[in-house]
Every structure is written in C-alpha cells, then in structure tokens.
C-alpha cells in the first residue's frame, strides 16, 4: 500500500463529548486507542471548538508576526524567566540537524500571576497590540485547547482501562504551553532547511491547528519507512502523543516522528500547537511501580537542555542531573 492510499484516522469526538446513543463514548475511546496504538497520531472533528475561535486565533497570529522585527525582538522568550514570548527564525537547532528551523514562534501558557518553580509557572508576555486583536482571541483559544487536551487525556486513560479520576494524580496544575508558529514561504528558506526538522514531541498530548489549505506536516510511518503528508483541513485538528505518554503506557501508545515543510513558494503558513503535559513533579501515574521515577519537569529539562539554556535555579528545582 502506497502513502497515497494511507491517511491518518479521522475521529469524530462528538460521540464522546455529547453522546447521543448508548455506546457512543466507548466507540470513540476504542477508535482513539486504535489510532494511537498504530500511528500515535489522528485527526479529529466534532471537538467542540467553534470555527470563530479558530479563525480569531489565526488572525491574531498573523497580526503578531506582521509586527516590525525590532518590536518582536523586544518580546524575546530568551529574556523571560518563564520562556514566554517571541522566538526569531533560525534560533532553534536540534542536535543532528544541519540547519536551524526556518519558523518563527511565540510561546505562552497558563496565566499564573507570579513566577513559581523557577519559571515553570508564571505570567505571559503580551505584545503591545489592542486587546481585541490579540490577547482576547488568543486567550479564548488557549482555554478551548486546554480543555480539548484534557479531554484527549481522559480518552487515552480509559483506552488503557483507567478511570478519568487518574487526571487528579498528575494534572492538578499541569504545564500546558502553547506555541504559535509562522513558517516562511519555501522561496525564503535555504536548500535543505525545514520549517521544523524531524522530531518526536517530548511529553503529553499535542493539539495542533493548521491553517486551512496550507499543507506541510508530514508524519513518519514506522515500518513503511516513508513520510505521510497530513492535509491542513478547516475545522480538523491533528492530535498526537509524545514520548512521555509512550513511555508511561509501556509502549501501548506510540510517539511518531514528524516534521514540517512549507511547500508553498510565495505564501507563509500558520499553525498553533497546545501541549498538555502534567504537573511538574508528577511521575508515571499509569504504573506506580515504574522503575523510571523521572518527573515531568525532569523529562522536559533533559529533552531540551541542549536546545534551551535553562538557568541553574530551574535545573536544581526539578532535580535534573547535570
């Protein structure tokens, strides 16, 4: 079977969120389990996030990235203890990649009033834009995808035979970062440069919105040794599991490698990813006997310490090894 004949499963979540008939919830749980066992990825509709909220978010991202470069640089995440704010194109380089990512990004998360745990929690950095052009639509969207990420976690837990109450053991105050992204046109990238190079997500559930009609996401099909393009369709989200879920589930759920190549010569591409991980000091709730007692915070620092210059206080806070 060629990749032309393969598509990621498209799962209607409305049967879980608003069940109409007996067995609706169980059917969705089984479909999600099958998709995450086979691919680690699936597409979803019936997710409950209004189109107006999605479109408002994309318009806000466009407004943000069209700000003058010198104004965006004043919002640099490198100057923020909680690593919130703007990432310039060419800053992110993964080990093994020949060239840095061409994307530019903007990071935010929970709106905690004070900095806690050396920056794992804290206030967001909001650009100097009118409320209705950025903060309002972006915050509405963040809250909506925060809720969707939690719903996906509940479904995944039930797919392994656990109760949704298990969320209370590892997600009382979860880390839920969100990354807004703009990829430059293909004509503005270097030969061999990716929008985002091949990688696995580090942690929990990823909720991805793609700008409709602006394709570029590709998922690695293990066993077939090929890349599967994932179309960017309006009102359809892409959901995937990270390495932490794969390890916590004992390999039941997959974490698949993926990358982004904006194939449009003269058009930029927007997307937004919300990552629902868990509490900073949470360990594997699915298997308390797991010999790997690494916390969510330790796993995060271990994964990104070569890409991000975490300060010593943060590393000491989570007890990560040097």
From TrEMBL:
UniProt cross-references to PROSITE patterns, sorted A to Z: FE2OG_OXY
UniProt keyword list: Iron, Metal-binding, Oxidoreductase
InterPro entries in alphabetical order: DIOX_N, IPNS-like_FE2OG_OXY, IPNS-like_sf, Oxoglu/Fe-dep_dioxygenase_dom
Any one Gene Ontology BP term: small molecule biosynthetic process
Keyword field contains Oxidoreductase: yes
GO MF, one annotated term: metal ion binding
Domain Fe2OG dioxygenase: 173-278
Similarity field: Belongs to the iron/ascorbate-dependent oxidoreductase family.
Record protein name field: Fe2OG dioxygenase domain-containing protein
